[in-house]
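I am still getting used to backbone structure tokens and would like to learn alongside you. Please make up or recall a protein chain and show it to me in full. Would you write everything just below, so we can both look at the same thing?
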Amino acid sequence: MAQPHISTAPARTIGRAVTARRWMVSVLHILAEATDKLTAAAAVGVAATSMFEFGPQWAQLTSAFDLTLAVLALYGAAQLIRPGLTGLATWLDPDLRDGHDLREAGRLIAQVRQDLEAGDDCDDVLRELYVSAVAEQLAWLLEDLAKEKPEEITTLLWVTSDHLRDTAQALAPRQ
């Protein structure tokens, strides 16, 4: 009986640089999403400093025009900073250049889940989930992956694929 081929190549591990870049990408995305809240906090801080005359002298604006101009400048800066942070995150993301789009897909699905928790319509999300065929495509992907794995993993992947297909059929609109 022939021995199965066992790879002697070292297992591929994720290096510290890739981990650090992924962490930085996550932080940049969080900062980009929080830009509006940080801008509002800065505007409230400048307004409070001006009205109550405390804090640094440069932040104590004496006229309503100066205060309005400062708030508009903060808003304009936020409109420039957000795309800059998002662009930098895209440039640093090691998974985008490596062809690993699944990380981005997972982030987008997590964003949809957050939107749902924030009050989005469940029926709209279910309809879009059906139209996008995410469950069906993931089922096909798992079946393709099952072809190259050991039997115990193959069985799990096929079962999961079947459940995803059942889910895709359950999402179909009723006539």
Confidence is low (pLDDT under 50) at residues 1-11. Residues 130 and 171 are 6 Å apart (CA to CA). The longest helix spans residues 64-92. The chain is about 75% helix and 0% strand.
